[in-house]
Amino acid sequence: MTTPAAYSPSRPCPLASVQRFDFETDVAIVGFGTAGTCAAIEAVNAGAKVMLFEVSSGSGGAAALSGGELYIGGGGGTLQQRTAGFEDRTEDFYQYLLMAGGPNADEAKVHLYADHALAHLDWLIAQGVEFKNSYVAERVMEPLTDDCLVWTGSEEAWPFAQAARPAPRGHTVRQEGWSAGKYLMDTLARRARELPIDVRFEARALALIADGNLHVHGLVVRIDNEPRFVRARSGVVLCTGGFIMNREMVRRHAPTLLRADHPIGTVDDGTGVRLGMSVGGAAINMTEGFVTVPWYPPGSLVKGIFVNERGQRFINEDCYHGRVSQFILDQPGDRVWLLQDHETYAPGLLHETARVGIGAAGDTWAEVEQELKLPAGTLTATVEVYNRHAAQGDDPLFHKARKWLKPLDKPPFVALDCRVDHAQYSAFTLGGLDTLPTGEVLTEGREVIPGLYAAGRTACGLPRWGKGYSSGMSIADSTFFGRQAGLAAASKG
Amino acid sequence: MTTPAAYSPSRPCPLASVQRFDFETDVAIVGFGTAGTCAAIEAVNAGAKVMLFEVSSGSGGAAALSGGELYIGGGGGTLQQRTAGFEDRTEDFYQYLLMAGGPNADEAKVHLYADHALAHLDWLIAQGVEFKNSYVAERVMEPLTDDCLVWTGSEEAWPFAQAARPAPRGHTVRQEGWSAGKYLMDTLARRARELPIDVRFEARALALIADGNLHVHGLVVRIDNEPRFVRARSGVVLCTGGFIMNREMVRRHAPTLLRADHPIGTVDDGTGVRLGMSVGGAAINMTEGFVTVPWYPPGSLVKGIFVNERGQRFINEDCYHGRVSQFILDQPGDRVWLLQDHETYAPGLLHETARVGIGAAGDTWAEVEQELKLPAGTLTATVEVYNRHAAQGDDPLFHKARKWLKPLDKPPFVALDCRVDHAQYSAFTLGGLDTLPTGEVLTEGREVIPGLYAAGRTACGLPRWGKGYSSGMSIADSTFFGRQAGLAAASKG
Questions:
Q1: Cβ-nearest to B212 among A16, A270, A397
Q2: Residue A349: per-residue pLDDT
Q3: Rounded to a whole number, what is the distance in Å from the CA of B313 to chain A's nearest CA?
Q4: CATH code of B320's domain
Q5: d(C-alpha B251, C-alpha B406), whole Å
């Protein structure tokens, strides 16, 4: 057996070819984002020797770019939920997460998380992460104040509200301004640096080290431009994020996401997914992603209606912005508009950040229809049917909730231009390695691959369906299941 | 190193654990369907020693259940195309195949096939497969006579016709009745049995045999309930079909296909895909499948329009039935109807085989709308807009070709009930292993896995996008790229 001339994350390095190990540890973690950090904290607290390898020169990951929300509920409600008057039963939380996971939801993960989300919040607080006891009732993307509880999903919208009693579940860390995620990540990273975790920056994972049975025994990392061989007696935990920045992987697995011009990620080059696949790990839900154009706030815009280039409505507009955006992507052609009247229209995020302008305006919907060059009788028929039923407080076609219904009959009327190929659509990937709730990586036959774990967006976790994504699901998943992976790996020592 | 207690197609058997080989060959082929047969014929003709393992007790595969069509064109046209008056330039053939491959089309495979399709037809004829020189102009699923050339795709429909000059390209083998595919398969199998190919029936592939570098050296097969070890000096060629019969794999990778209650397959349990993944092979386009309800002939039905449960149209109805069916699956809810008037309606396959009945009827479209319990002004507005433009020979919303346009204004009117969860929808999978045109299996990093090849639906080939599938693409792909894999493997001897 010979050592491959060049390493590739898609091909394992044979154990028998390793001359000597440069490092020996119990648990080797790849990636210093939220998942890797939580895995490291739990593994070291469980008594394991832990090394953490990060390709960048500091901690980070996509969560650090986020609004710092975690999707938490069940157990009767968090302090914030109860204070705001929401009881949140575990059963409702479970049902919502299950629906949000889509047709291939992971029942075992949903079940475990629904049962332990409250305790997970306590754990985060114990690591030093602060959450204010406050609630923002308005429809926002994320609070720009230091407030905590917000609505971040489609809980009150059809069909979710019919299956699970709604409650706000987005718990935002106590930090003002955009990107409270950085505060969350920094706090967790600070905690990790207080513990005896051997962190190596600028260390790129090159390949897993596996024996002939494809049991994983460590990994090859590049440090100072040299391959270094790491023996991980208990396990390797892959936490390198998703693959949105690897455009070739996106093209191959989730080409629709290429239309979103604003990928959300730091490294996210698919290294972890590829490492897992190299030893027979199954990658699942690889076409799925989170995609969004921030089309609200203000909430009044929810009273408008979206139409495609055939003048047809296609969604109840009171869904979460990401779910609406997924339906936008499904429409034939590129042209999509958000119709508003004089009472509902207000400038907002669409203008500030999303490059969305006014596509047409008019004193009648027929004028708007004409200006958009839609065939006569298309958009006008759509608005006419909508208005007639909205006046009765009903939306028989798409089931938008009554509180958002009003006839769009106060001129002037506008059509906001939400073209995917023009406006700013953000995206990250939701597909990844199939894992048990313990983080153990599975083959296509669902056999465990000994010595290999994954968490965060390297794995396919709670969030795995673009049409069900809700803000805070990814960080809830990465922190909670990062912890499980760290604990499980440490227990093999 | 120890031998695993039980074999799994998702885990390789370590070469070092093999005590002795029961068989030695140059090329080991798994699966006696069209792909495996063509691979075997070419490999043995190239001078290789060939073994062919088939889990069933006879040759077959999904192609044997088919109509026996091959999608062939380019080079100025086949004899049948030219006789029928169609010149088919390679460039048009290439463009159509590329569009049909969807957003992740394989340019290299499309290019190779477009250049060599005519020679491939000659090769099939040389193996004994007969094709009549005749053309059926009517819109059919497949000829029930022994005729050859038919339209089997969306060549004349928007947007395909705008990108590539249309020509009929479905070449049906000379055989009367349904399932001419059996004649095709039997003819190829007969040819293979005349050659010195060592065929073993009732032999199930259990695992690949790989060394520490994951180079493939053979496979473990179960014969007479015992694991047998096969050394393949030049390569293993996986031709076990797709995975539509493995409902757990379908649920995990392509859950939408579960809605189609009529899976088309024989074994098709995903063994080949799993074997490839077990040594780091990348499976791509795994969500994609061919799904169809045979809603024509007669062709007059194409003059009707499909509406979803919001009363909206969603497709130009002159597309290939499989493309239309994919759009049906995309619609929200389950209820979909095909609207016809007195002039266009005629009973056909829908009634005979697809469990499609009349959902509503009326003397006005308003009556039909009401009977279907659609909100007032939905279906009627759709028909009104359609009729107005159809009278002008135009379909500005969906671009149905002029020859299929006529106002649906002759009562009585009917709505044919095409519910996915009620009617008969057939399906097979289009996702599979990423391969080079040679059949060499690739990792996620697109490195070749030495010693491993795949073809037919085990690989991701020309057909890889449900909305682009055209009848004959799968067998064209399995026979042509089966040949390439056999040749490539033999050349490594």
A1: A16
A2: 66
A3: 9
A4: 3.90.700.10
A5: 41
Contact (CB<8Å) B443/A277: yes
How far is the C-alpha of B57 from the C-alpha of A254, rounded, in Å? 39
Q: Residue B246: give its domain's CATH number.
A: 3.50.50.60
Total CB pairs under 8 A between chain A and B? 164
Answer whether B385 sits within 8 Å of A384, measured CB to CB. no
- Tell whether B264 and B150 lie within a shared domain: yes
Please indicate, yes or no, if residue B2 is contained in any of the structural domains.
Answer: no
Residues B244 and B317 in one domain: no
User: A417, A435, A462 — which closes off a domain?
Assistant: A417
Pair A458, A102: CB distance under 8 Å: no
User: Does residue B45 lie within any of the structural domains?
Assistant: yes
pLDDT digits (tens, 9 = 90+) for A255-276: 999 999 899 999 999 999 999 9
Number of domains in chain A: 3
Which of B394, B417, B440 is at the close of a domain?
B417
Domain containing residue B316: 298-417
In this structure, are residues B303 and B344 in contact, taking their beta carbons and an 8 Å threshold? yes
pLDDT digits (tens, 9 = 90+) for B403-421: 999 999 999 999 999 998 8
User: Is residue B21 one of the residues assigned to a domain?
Assistant: yes
Please, how many CA atoms are within 13 Å of residue A189, restricted to the half-sphere of its CB?
Answer: 19
Q: Any CB–CB contact under 8 A between A76 and chain B? A: no
- A298 and A402 part of one domain: yes
A81 token code pair: 């939920």
Does residue A473 lie in a domain region? yes
Whole-prediction pTM value?
Answer: 0.94
pLDDT digits (tens, 9 = 90+) for A56-82: 999 988 998 899 999 999 999 999 999
Confidence band for A447, pLDDT divided at 50, 70 and 90? very high
Confidence of residue A5 (pLDDT cuts 50, 70, 90): low
Same domain, B265 and B364: no
Shared domain check, B303 and B289: no
CB contacts under 8 A, A 414-453 vs B, are: 434, 443-445, 447
Chain A nearest CA to B81, separation (Å): 33
Contact status of A162 with chain B (Cβ, < 8 Å): no
Q: Are residues B387 and B446 in the same domain?
A: no
DSSP class of residue B375 equals P
CB atoms within 10 A of CB A201: 14
ipTM above 0.90, yes or no: yes
Same domain as B187, residue B160:
yes
d(CA B266, CA B264): 7
Helices (H), A141-203: 160-163, 180-194
Above pLDDT 70, what percent of chain B?
Answer: 98
Q: Kindly report, residue by residue over B368-413, the tens digit of the pLDDT.
A: 999 999 999 999 999 999 999 999 999 999 999 999 999 999 999 9
Contact A10 B249 (CB under 8 A): no
pLDDT tier for residue B139 given thresholds of 50, 70 and 90: confident
pLDDT score for B268: 95
CB contact under 8 A, A212 and B282: no
| pLDDT value for B356 | 77
* Residue A55 and residue A121 in one domain: no
Are the Cβ atoms of A278 and B273 closer than 8 angstroms? no
> Is B247 near chain A, with CB under 8 Å?
no
Q: Is the CB of residue A330 less than 8 Å away from at least one CB of chain B? A: yes
Provide the strand spans (E) within B408-493. Answer: 413-417, 426-429, 432-433, 440-442, 448-454
Distance CA B400, CA B319 (A): 8
Say yes or no for a CB contact (<8 Å) between A310 and B253: no
Give the chain B residue nearest A13 (alpha carbons): B213
